[in-house]
Amino acid sequence: MVSDMTRLHVYERRGHPPPSAKGFRAAVSMHCHTNHSKESLTFIPHYARRIPVISRFYESEMKRYGEKINFARAWWTPPVTARQVFEMETVEVESRLGLPAIVSITDHDDIAAGLWLQSLDSQGRIPISVEWTVPYGRGYFHLGVHNLPPDRASELMREMSAYSQIGGQPRPQMGLRDLLAWINEFPETLVVLNHPLWDMEFIGGQQHAVALGSFLGEHKARIHALEINGFRPWRENKAVMSTAKDFGLSVVSGGDRHGCRSNTLLNLTRAANFAEFVAEVREDGRSDVLLMPEYRESLVLRTLEVVADVLRHYPSHPQGQFLWTNRVFINLEDKGGRPLSDYWKRGGPAWVRAALWGLRAVGSQRIKPALRMAFSRESLMSQ
Q1: pLDDT of amino acid 105
Q2: Distance between CA 345 and CA 41 in Å, rounded?
Q3: Cα 302 from Cα 162, distance rounded (Å)
Q4: pLDDT tens, position by position, 68-113
């Protein structure tokens, strides 16, 4: 028991469904990303300058391009399609838990995946959801907005994108408070503050904590839950649960998958569909979070696997994005976003190719057993 509002269940052993899953009608997998998701590259300067050897090559490359590269206007896309993510999450849940799966895909500031999947589902069981980038102070927060009403989803997304100034659009007159109030008018929509303690903007942990307190103090009434995240360390997720309790909010799961492995955190529910699940959280304040066995694996190892997935060659990619350079987009001299393969015909400078070869090797399935042994002492509680 975590609180009166949130219960935590642990799936201890692979192949043995947890007894706590009995009595539930479905499992909800939230916070999935597909090739529609534009993933920021602003982290590159932050980390590249801190890695020995790489930093020297990086600085040399930046001098070559001068001020032409703006990482805030560059992005990469995950290698998996909406259909692949939906099918993988569904098979994983149903085969391991014996429960129907409810999957909510939240690409960054884009609802194309949900709209497309709904076109294949005449019963409308697949929610239209998004991970919305919300500027706030010196940084920003990510809100998971799940199950937008199909007849208003595109209109709402246009207003949310305009507020975020995505695509260079001018900031609209409708403020964040008004936008959140509008979203809250739809009772079957769920608003979740994703990975709230993660200092994504690199403004410093203390300043991020101050911004979070201010954000929640101002908008808590229009946010339904905080997220514990499958790619954040356990100590941070425990702190999120404490924060949620302090603010009187529920906690829900978010797997945050970007590669080929399924989400490691799920919600168990007595609901038959996503709308009923929303009512459990919004109206009843009830949430049952399930930690899958994979969440207990080393976070470093799981992250390396995602990196390997992103950098892998996919000869049968349905969108024709076979190489990783086909899935990275950069805007040079305001010419619009173009794939990196347009500029790096051979995969980039030799030092880039060598570094990425190493990352692919480290994250490969052949190296995984050795890495698992190396990280075997890293327990869930030490993350």
Answers
A1: 98
A2: 20
A3: 34
A4: 667 778 899 999 999 999 999 999 999 999 999 999 999 999 999 9
Alpha helices in the chain (DSSP H): 43-48, 54-65, 82-97, 112-119, 153-163, 176-184, 205-219, 234-247, 274-282, 299-311, 350-362, 368-374
What is the Cα–Cα distance from 367 to 359, expressed in whole angstroms?
A: 11
Distance CA 379, CA 377 (A): 6
What token pair was written down for 343? 């500029």
Q: Where are the domains of the chain?
A: 6-37+78-294, 39-76+300-382
**268 CB neighbour count, 10 Å cutoff:** 25
Q: What is the pLDDT of residue 1?
A: 39
Q: Which residues of the chain have pLDDT under 50?
A: 1, 168, 170
Residue 327 pLDDT: 94
CA distance 67 to 259: 31
Q: Three-state SS for 102?
A: strand
What pLDDT, on the 0 to 100 scale, is given for residue 337?
83
* Number of residues assigned to the chain: 383
CATH of domain 6-37+78-294: 3.20.20.140
Cα separation, 2 vs 116, in Å, equals 37
